[in-house]
Amino acid sequence: MKGKISQYKELNGFGWIFEGFNKVHFFHVSNWNAATIPVVGMEVEFEIGPGRKPGQTQAVNVAPVASQVEGGAL
After folding, report:
1. What is the pTM of this model?
2. Using one digit for the tens of pLDDT, what is the confidence trace for 22-43?
3. Residue ranges per structural domain of the chain
4. Whose CA is closest to 62, among 42, 32, 20?
5. 38-67 pLDDT, tens digit each
6. Are 60 and 49 in contact (CB under 8 A)?
């Protein structure tokens, strides 16, 4: 899946990804797969996995879209 980071709380290590059509997914920095830090507005690819509480979901395997990293935008 693809989306954009809409909020990121660096001190707390979590944020939200806006997928579109009013779909927003929580993510934790422990699921961040890149050497850079998450930045608001960054396009990312991710999967949906289980959240910390039963019945919840969250974004996992979150990483910047490859073209941003290769193009030197970061």
Report:
1. 0.85
2. 899 999 999 999 999 999 999 9
3. 2-70
4. 32
5. 999 999 999 999 998 999 999 999 999 986
6. yes
* Gyration radius of the chain over CA positions: 12
Helix (H, G, I), strand (E, B) or coil at 70: helix
Residue 67 vs residues 28, 42, 45, 46: alpha-carbon distances, Å? 23, 11, 11, 15
Contacts with 71 (C-beta within 8 Å, 6 or more apart), sequence order = none
The CATH classification number of 2-70 equals 2.40.50.140
Residue 41 vs residues 5, 7, 50: alpha-carbon distances, Å: 5, 8, 24
> Token pair 């939200």 is at which residue?
16
DSSP tally for the chain: helices H, then strands E: 1, 5
